[in-house]
């Protein structure tokens, strides 16, 4: 049965429909974020839309709407590197959200089953679970390909041609083209853009999926087993020879068809113990009767970032009340554990728990400030008066006192819990109570092997 093609010649009417614009406006306000080059805050967007809706719609219909320049902002990427983030104005973000909501319906039905990034009802756990199922089915030679600066290298001509195959609406195509070509404002200078999709705009995830759908289609045509999450993708093979052949084939497709370069340092053929995906690693299961099977662990980098967030919230100089700290800590804990709940993390969480409680004790000790208040507070907690006096005048550092028995036996876990603190291991048990029982063993995270990639000759691939 043939699928009936949907008419997209008047797509703009759905985009500018009052209900769609209102929902897009609410999405932008809810996501918050910084303002663009015009200085308008997202909190002012609703009032602006109410007052200028008719004028805005008329400009779009007449193809007279011109997007404002994108504000460029450098954000830390890790490893001392930075990433250039593009921040459109609040009005452009709203219109991009409105276009994305409508256009997504026409593409979502065609997107690959094995594409998990920036799509409704799909997440990192599903992508990781699929990778684990491939590995445990014997596909343990993994072609990992990292696209070099993908969002900065997207070819506008190829992307617009792909869009026009499905979107025949002149006004919608005009809007998207102008967003792609909008200049970038950095350090007070305007920079022309003839390539790339700015990271930070609401429409960039959809546009990236549209161009990489061509890659998905090619891999499906070749009958490959793969997982893709945005611009991160990996292919799973039975043998190393097959993996080399597949790696060169996909490299040539990316280079010749999509004009996308790969990062040679981060690309290669991996074994499961040398492979990481979306913050997860893989380690063998050491259990009698089980051979060649792997389980999930969390990578060292994700543990470090989690600890850094908790450390920032428990910094003694951070001007917050104890209740505010606890509320923010619980938000961080819940989000992180929900993301990595399928990995073996309980033992490591229990170790981190002791460190976090000492950080909280340190904050409390610092909050008491003066020696007399420290003495009175210790007495209220049940410490004998003479010992309380001695500890309140101690020359030990605050972090040393936080780890000492005087606070460990007074500011106990039970007292912290009465103030709202939830131990990491307890929260893990709550979240995973409906999941199968897991081993508490957390092994060392995997490391990367040397890359397989070599620059192929111009006439033929390496393998």
Q: Care to give the gist of this entry?
A:
With 463 residues, the chain is α+β, with helices and mostly antiparallel strands. The chain has helices at 11-15, 18-31, 45-61, 90-108, 124-136, 150-153, 156-166, 170-181, 204-221, 240-256, 300-313, 322-339, 346-368, 371-380, 385-392, 398-402, 405-408, 413-418, 424-431; strands spanning 70-78, 81-87, 141-146, 184-186, 189-191, 225-229, 232-237, 268-270, 276-277, 280-284, 294-298.
How does this model look, in words?
By secondary structure, this protein is an alpha+beta fold. The chain is 49% helix and 12% strand. It is built from 19 helices and eleven strands. The protein has a four-stranded mixed beta sheet, with no helix packed on it. A four-stranded antiparallel beta sheet has the order 6-7-3-8, with helices on both faces. The chain has a three-stranded antiparallel beta sheet with strand order 9-10-11. Strand 1 and strand 2 form a beta hairpin. Helix 12 packs across helix 19. The radius of gyration is 27 Å and the shape is globular. It starts with 10 loop residues before the first helix and ends in a 32-residue tail after the last helix. The C terminus is likely disordered.
Task: Please render the helix and strand layout as text.
Elements: H1 11-15, H2 18-31, H3 45-61, E1 70-78, E2 81-87, H4 90-108, H5 124-136, E3 141-146, H6 150-153, H7 156-166, H8 170-181, E4 184-186, E5 189-191, H9 204-221, E6 225-229, E7 232-237, H10 240-256, E8 268-270, E9 276-277, E10 280-284, E11 294-298, H11 300-313, H12 322-339, H13 346-368, H14 371-380, H15 385-392, H16 398-402, H17 405-408, H18 413-418, H19 424-431
Helix pairs in contact: 2-4, 7-8, 11-12, 12-19, 13-19, 14-15
């Amino acid at each position: 049965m043939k699928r009936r093609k949907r008419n997209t010649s008047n797509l703009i009417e759905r985009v500018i429909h009052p209900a769609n614009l209102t929902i897009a406006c609410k999405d932008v306000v809810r996501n918050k974020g910084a303002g663009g080059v015009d200085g308008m805050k997202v909190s002012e967007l609703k009032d602006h839309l109410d007052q200028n809706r008719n004028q805005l719609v008329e400009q779009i219909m007449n193809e007279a709407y011109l997007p404002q320049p994108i504000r460029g902002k450098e954000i830390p990427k890790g490893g001392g590197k930075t990433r250039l983030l593009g921040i459109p104005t609040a009005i452009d973000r709203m219109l991009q959200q409105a276009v994305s909501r409508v256009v997504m319906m026409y593409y979502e039905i065609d997107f690959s089953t094995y594409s998990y990034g920036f799509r409704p009802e799909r997440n990192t756990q599903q992508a990781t679970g699929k990778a684990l199922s491939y590995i445990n089915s014997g596909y343990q030679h993994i072609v990992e390909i990292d696209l070099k600066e993908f969002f900065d290298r997207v070819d506008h001509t190829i992307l617009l041609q792909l869009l026009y195959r499905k979107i025949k609406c002149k006004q919608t195509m005009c809007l998207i083209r102008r967003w792609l070509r909008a200049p970038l404002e950095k350090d007070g200078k305007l920079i022309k853009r003839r390539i790339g999709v700015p990271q930070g705009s609401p429409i960039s995830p959809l546009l990236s999926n549209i161009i990489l759908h061509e890659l998905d289609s090619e891999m499906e045509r070749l009958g490959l087993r793969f997982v893709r999450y945005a611009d991160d993708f990996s292919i799973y093979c039975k043998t190393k020879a097959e993996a080399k052949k597949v790696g060169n084939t996909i490299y040539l497709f990316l280079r010749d068809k999509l004009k996308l370069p790969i990062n040679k340092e981060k690309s290669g053929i991996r074994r499961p113990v040398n492979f990481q995906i979306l913050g997860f690693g893989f380690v063998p299961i050491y259990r009698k009767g089980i051979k060649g099977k792997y389980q999930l662990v969390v990578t060292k980098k994700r543990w470090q970032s989690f600890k850094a967030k908790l450390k920032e919230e428990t910094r003694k100089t951070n001007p917050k009340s104890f209740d505010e700290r606890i509320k923010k800590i619980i938000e961080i804990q819940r989000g992180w554990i929900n993301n990595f709940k399928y990995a073996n993390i309980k033992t490591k969480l229990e170790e981190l728990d002791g460190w976090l409680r000492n950080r909280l004790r340190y904050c409390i000790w610092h909050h008491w400030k003066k020696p007399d208040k420290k003495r009175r507070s210790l007495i209220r907690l049940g410490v004998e008066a003479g010992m309380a006096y001695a500890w309140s005048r101690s020359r030990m550092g605050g972090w040393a006192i936080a780890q000492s028995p005087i606070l460990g036996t007074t500011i106990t876990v039970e007292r912290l819990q009465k103030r709202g603190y939830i131990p990491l291991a307890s929260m893990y048990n709550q979240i995973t109570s409906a999941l199968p029982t897991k081993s508490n063993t957390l092994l060392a995270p995997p490391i990367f092997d040397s890359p397989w990639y070599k620059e192929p000759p111009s006439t033929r691939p390496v393998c």
